[in-house]
Amino acid sequence: MNIINKKNVLSPSASVSLLLVIFFTSIAAELSASPTTTVYVHLSTRTVAVGQTFIVEVKISEVGDLYGWEFKLRWNPNLLDVVDVTEGPFLKQGGDTFFAKKTNNTAGNILVDCTLLGNVSGVSGNGTLATVKFYAEVQGESILDLYDTILINSHEIAITHIPIDGTVTTTGVPVGGIRIPVNKFELLAPYIGLTALLAVAVITAVFFKYKKEKP
Q1: Domains detected in the chain
Q2: What is the tens place of the pLDDT at every residue in 7-66?
Q3: Cα gap 138→36, rounded to integer Å
Q4: How does pLDDT run across 150-186, given as a tens digit for each residue?
Q5: Helix (H) or strand (E) run with residue 198 in it
Q6: Are 149 and 143 in contact, with CB atoms under 8 Å apart?
Q7: Alpha-carbon distance 174 to 135, whole Å?
Q8: Which helix (H) or strand (E) holds 201?
Q9: Taking the complete model, does pTM exceed 0.85, yes or no?
Q10: CA end-to-end distance (rounded Å), the chain
């Protein structure tokens, strides 16, 4: 006759509790081991003189198998204008890409997207998705709001990630105390004045020449 040691037999409730502990422990270990993918705005400097252009990079970190991406970026249109948007080198590591952009300086936003082409694997790691060149119009501070971000892997499955905004401050006085013109017209003012002066001089010379030659 077999004798069962009751001390070594777990009750049903204890078995369930043990299974739950094992399950949540494995989930916690997996989460702690998996880094969070982020898409973020990167500036080499957060203070820019009015009248100058500056570069903003939209970068990605800790991503795996990225096949395509899309983001929108908005700013204060009273302070900044976008001059150009170009594709970064990150996704090109995986092969040929298709890159598209749509800029609206009046509303102060851009829509940018990019995807690999063909049956290829996605790209993993860290890098720059796109580069945005801005022109500083007037003094102030603007949030560079990164929103509606989408990441897709090579199996057409969305990649969970966190978007992170940026901030830039524009100032009328750069380092060194030399004043920067506060708008585009003021940038051209010296040349406009010189052109007007030359025009007056030419007109005056022609007038006196005509008067002198007149019988």
Answers
A1: 38-171 (2.60.40.680)
A2: 444 455 545 454 444 444 444 444 443 579 999 999 988 999 999 999 999 999 999 999
A3: 37
A4: 999 999 999 999 999 999 999 986 544 444 444 444 4
A5: helix 184-213
A6: no
A7: 15
A8: helix 184-213
A9: no
A10: 147
Residue pair 37/161 in contact by the 8 Å Cβ criterion: yes
The tokens 């298709």 sit on which residue? Answer: 98
The predicted-structure confidence for 57-99, as pLDDT tens digits, reads as follows 999 999 999 999 999 999 999 999 999 999 999 999 999 999 9
DSSP state of 116: E
Name the token pair of 37: 């993918």
Strand boundaries in 20-79, DSSP class E: 38-43, 47-49, 53-74
For residue 107, which amino acid is it?
Answer: A
- Residues 6+ away with beta carbon under 8 Å from 215: none
φ, ψ dihedrals at 59, nearest 5°: -115, 165
Q: What is the CA radius of gyration of the chain?
A: 31
Q: Could you tell me which residues are beta bridge partners of residue 42?
A: 57
Neighbours of 47 (CB within 10 A): 13
Taking the alpha carbons of 162, 160, 117, 72 in that order, is the dihedral positive or negative? negative
Pick from 144, 79, 162, 152: nearest CA to 122: 152
| Residues in the chain, total | 215
Q: Structure tokens of 38?
A: 């982020």
Please give the structure tokens belonging to residue 132. 């945005």
